[in-house]
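Example with several molecule types.
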Amino acid sequence: MENSPIIVSADLITAYGHGLNQCWNGFMARQRPFTPITRFPTTGIEGVVAATVPDSSYDGSLSLAEHLLEKIAVTTIKLPADTELFLATTVGEIDLMEQEILLHRTEKRAPTCSSLLARAKAIFGKKHASLISAACSSGNMALARAAAKIQAGTIEYAIVVGCDIVSEFVFSGFASLGAIDLKGTRPYDRDRAGLTLGEAAGVIVLASEDAARRDGLPRLARLAGWNMTCDAVHITAPRSDGLQLVNAIRHVLETAGIAPSEIGGIIGHGTGTIFNDSMEINTLNAVFNKNAKPLFSTKGGVGHTLGAAGIIQTAIAVKAIQEMLLPPQTGLREPMPGAEHMVSDQAQKLITPKILSLNTGFGGINAVLLIEECS
Amino acid sequence: MKKTSRKNSFKLSLNGMALVNSNHALMMNRGLSFESKDGVAGIYQEIVSSKSIPIMRLDNFRRAGEKARLAMLGSLLALADAGLSTGGSTAIIGWGGEESMTENRAYFTDYAVNGRFLGRSQLFIGTLPSTPLCEAAICLNLHGPVYYFHSDGSLNPVLAEAESLLSSQTAGQALLLGLSRGELLALLLEHSGDVNDFSQSMQTDDMSGIYHHLGEKFSATENLNKQSTISAGP
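Resulting structure tokens for the full complex:
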């Protein structure tokens, strides 16, 4: 795609710790940094695990999401003050609302996604900021919207931030839907039984080609295509044949002018739930037919980080293109039917330096990105 | 570098507009107004009974919450106002600043007072800012991008967002669904070759004010001033 933006910086805080390399090394070692939830009671399902960020510095005086943003802002590259900030989150400062109800405490600000946006603006020192909330597709959606504005020449730089936390609110909700795997998620596994919640903050900085060259920034990869669709079928379940996700992928390939055979690997949404993973494998088989691509889900290691998921996937895509590898699938024992030639418990070579990153969310929201090596 | 969102004029045309609250619904181009004392469901029944516009079945509003009901009915009326019954690849952008705060509190309070043991999934589903938008997409079979957007609290950045989305041909048209203080404003927008003046930094929490402001600018004036009211009788 002409004038597609360059990824000039990628940083993460996940259950593996602070830094993209920390996260990559964790995936490569197939570490599962899942620990029993102690932050809140999990009555009835004691011992259930989550991928929380190990952080002894958090004292509870801020929302946890604000704390994570403060930490990641320290290592984010400095950009002009008029750089536009895009925040991807699903529940924002939800822990403040929990305290308000459980402790009968009155909060100074209404705890919402928008309140976290205001905090993010202040933390990153930016004048212009937008919230993009699209359920678990928020990360890819925010990257796509930022990329489109750079491509159109409306902005030169975009700082795209994704953040969500492991909260009692979200945990109890997913538990009520029967979507949690008590022992830890196993994306694309035959015996997968649900998701594991995770928390993270991630930052991707996008720049126009001209700005990246002019300002001497590293050209890590190119965000070469994007598309978003909605299944419009069910408020929680995906369309089982993945038709609208298929359409989104095909649109990305067409607008980028590349054939399916040129894709080197896929970072899927891969939540580990029965329905999501089944829909994704149906989708990938429909698009790539018998030319199966290496497939990897970040959620086997960092859990389902909701609004941060797409940011993590893009950061890992950058690293995967540098290493020309997709990490082994964390948590995998035996691939689910249809995924036998896609997922592996061993690292897989990328066929080409072009990766598709998929997000799917409640309501059937699909968002697809194409990340490729800079020529 | 070019600046964004600091303008009043956009390459957008307003093809349909509807305002819905628990008492009435208004359509800009059609000049129709529907009233009921039985909430959104009552208004819907009035619309069906009147046979004034073709309208699809909304069985019990898919058992959705109030915001989703407003979003479904408002979307349907905005499309009908533009002479459409469905929109294919139409995008839906939510705005208004309230997000799902009421639903979040309802879900978590219910969970907490019941011993923090089991949450109610039917309440949890409504706790995303994107839920009402997706319910509208399902209702009208719309397959374009769906997301909730918030910037500085005024309408202009939302219009700029729609302009950007439509000019990149990501979607053929966009439904902007603004929810605030129990009112939903649905704007059906299309990319336009001409620049149209929309606003003067209107705040997003006054949906009625925006409806009347935009109606004066964009509707056939005689329709807006002669809205025929269809109500449940005495």
